[in-house]
Amino acid sequence: MTDHLPGFLAPWVVSAAVLGLSALLPARRVVGYVRDERTGRLLRYRLNGALVFATMVGLWTAAGYSGVMPWDWLWTHRWSGAAGALALGFVASAAAVLTAPGRGGSLLKELYLGRRANPRMLGGRVDAKMFLYVFGATYLELNLLSFAAHHYLTFPEDPSPGVVVYVALFTWFVCDYLVFERVHLYTYDLFAERVGFKLIWGCLFFYPYFYGVGLWAAADLPNPHAPVWLPVLATLVFFAGWSLARGANMQKFHFKLDPERIFLGRFRPEAISDGERRVLCSGFWGVSRHVNYLGEVLMATGLALSLGQPALVAPWLYPLYYVLLLVPRERDDDRRCAAKYGALWDEYRRRVPWRIVPRVY
Ligand code: NDP
After folding, report:
1. How far, in Å, from the CA of 124 to the mean position of ligand 1?
2. What domain range includes position 139?
3. Does residue 254 share a domain with residue 158?
4. Could you identify the atom of ligand 1 that is nearest to the CA of residue 333?
5. Which of 18, 84, 271, 305 sits a CA distance of 20 to 30 A from 135?
6. Same-domain pairing of 56 and 180
7. What are the start-end ranges of the H helices in the chain?
8. Is the pLDDT of residue 333 over 80?
């Protein structure tokens, strides 16, 4: 039991550290997209995810160099760590929901989907949703680094280059989110979801412990000596997906800020309007109605391939998860937009008939 306790407590300690750093480190102050449910005013945010992330990775590196904590400590304690994150997710979800006034639905549903829309912590300095994402991203990165360290310590003579490519691509994915943290303020999680088990458990446990599922399987395996074209193909697929997801997100973000702004200095936005509201129907948003979701699935596919072991099942669970998450989410968002935009959305559906994959779905 005493062997497992440090691992179990690790996610609790890291979450406290991330929360403390989020409150204390300097931050960019921005106005968001979501309105306060009570006052109707646009919410304001302090954003410093990239700085919090860099500080935590720096601390981890210093602990490794100084010998305070072995490089592969999070690998060695991965099962007790996952149990600790699971427990933390349950406790935090119960605390977040049960301390909020009920919304008139069933308790089980409210536990899962949440009650509060955009709660703040530490006297309003930290937005709960943004904290959850920064924690998930940071802890995922620490796990990936530690799992890769285990691989290198186990096979020092002949490590797998696929492990490096996998960690490099995932690091890009995580840093991309943190660099464009502000863009996330304009997404579904922020305006359509409440803070319950789904979001809390998702960020405290699932994000740091499931996303790297490929390395859970591959870190302990010897170099498969995959052909060179495989990691090259994986990288191309990953960046094709990234271009679609990041491009679509940025185009919509700029359109919401300034509907006339020319995107990337070239693409003049075309929109359909009812005189009051506008829906973008050019560029990424003219290809399919959620080409950004296709981008996410391609990125996940690139990550699964990058390990150089395509016959291994575990890495494929990650792209499969995206398909299971994003297909129903697109349906849900489509219903939401149809209710919000009415005839305008019908017109958009006529102009852009594809949901996610152009000419296929
Ligand atoms: P979107 O960014 O597609 O946002 C949907 C919203 O955008 C709609 O509700 C609508 O909101 C607005 N919108 C949709 N179409 C148009 C249009 N043509 N013109 C103008 N506004 C439009 O989806 P998400 O918020 O779900 O995703 C954001 C990003 O996060 C995506 O790249 C997604 O892939 C990624 N993601 C990543 C996950 C991960 O684990 N890595 C998980 C889930 C998502 P409004 O009311 O503002 O008009």
Report:
1. 26
2. 14-222
3. no
4. 9
5. 305
6. yes
7. 5-24, 49-66, 73-76, 78-98, 107-113, 128-154, 161-179, 181-184, 188-192, 197-201, 207-210, 213-218, 229-257, 284-287, 291-306, 314-341, 343-351
8. yes
